[in-house]
Design brief:
It contains 17 helices and 13 strands. By secondary structure, it is an alpha+beta fold. The strands form 5 sheets. The chain has a 4-stranded mixed beta sheet. It starts with a helix and ends with a strand. The structure holds protoporphyrin IX containing FE (HEM).
Amino acid sequence: MDTESTLRDLCKTYGPIITFRIGSSTSIFIAGHAVAHEALIQKGAAFSHRPGPVTPSCIFDNSYLDVGSSSGKRWTLIRRNIASVVLIPSRYKAFGGARRWVLQVLNDSLANHVKSGEPVPMLDRFGYAIFCLLLYLCFGEALDGKIIREIMETEKGKLARFNLLGVFALFPRLGKFVFKKNWNEMLELRQKQLSVLLPLIEASRERRGNIKQDKIDDTSFVSYINSLFDLEIKEEGGRKLANREIATLISEVLDAGSDTTTTTFEWIMAHLVKNPEMQEKVYSEVVGVSGLTEEIKEEDLEKMSYLRGVVLEGLRLHPPIHFLLPRVVTEDIVVSGYLIPKDARVNFLVAEFGWDPKVWKDPMEFKPERFMAGDEHEEFDLTSTKELKMMPFSAGRRICPGYGLGTLHLEYFLANVIRDYKWTPVEGDDVDMTEKMEFACVMKHSLKVNLTPRIK
Ligand code: HEM
């Protein structure tokens, strides 16, 4: 039995909050909706510090970014900045040109598969497309395919060793001694990462030259890198970020936005392949709103309530992240009657919230209708401000800054690929829904499907 299901069972037996004490350190896991809502939304300010590295790359550089947020300042600055680029809908919608380009990249690769008659490995195809898109968001331009592959390879290599990062951060000397081979592999990956990213950053910096800050209003297109060039670190005399630090931050967005979106997409496609009638419903809705061949616009997606239900249901049943980035409380606080002592590490059983039978009827079934008109979850609020029912993007001050962008990407690509192709299982393949925990919770056996173009 794995740690997560053990924790789930303990919560079922002993209540919504489980405390472990080892020596002087306290770890707390929260599974109750009301407790989590109060902790993250009402008392979120007390949960503001994070121990250990904030991102995988932080353990490499002894820089401003390295700080495990002991003052919270690093996080606040970086967090506000990323939010200013990806959280404002009118601003991320301005990346429409990039989405169209990536859709073309995806379509070309799917068309090649159809020609070859081979089943399509979904994770790989869609994963590459999302990477292209995130790199566009970071650099403000379409990068060369070879460079994209190189960056993707190093980021994947780092994420594959994600579990060891905590060890290196908490026990730097011992960790590097005991896991010497892994540490050397990580250093090699960091070198590779820098060798690709630094020249790109340098070229962007040169291009930007003396141009003053982009006119930032709600609708302007702001690439992430330009927002980083403009950041000033007040605590260090107003200095600007160094190129290595910028590489780290770009890598953070790539890691946070790629596997999460790709994995959710794969799970959703798996359900739609298993349930062809649901796939046909999505198809009819998309064609009804956008027509058979016209471009699917962002405003069209807002009219597709079944598609939205499919995406929310995918996020509920298969949240890619099962534990949040760890928190430490800054003062003794009482949450829903439970005392959480200062310095306790707190985490949340993310998946458990979406699977709770007290909140969700038939929680383990994939039912997009539960989010549609007439259902009690019709007005579902992904940010959990009023009530917490599930939290695939977390909740409160630290909610994923990419939640709007992530759902838009899922809706946009699903609408397009389902309108263009009928997706069917490979003969003899049952579509295995077994989970496997990596950086994200992925399908143990990656989805392979056959595609038939809808319009010949
Ligand atoms: C389906 C897609 C996605 C899911 C399910 C998801 C989920 C999450 C979760 C659970 C967290 C942890 C929050 C916490 O600890 O409270 C997180 C953090 C983060 N996500 Fe996402 N995410 C997605 C897509 C994206 C995208 C597209 C981007 C950016 C382009 C992004 C950027 C980030 C960043 C930068 C953080 C760290 C925030 C911080 O340090 O406070 N995510 N995400």
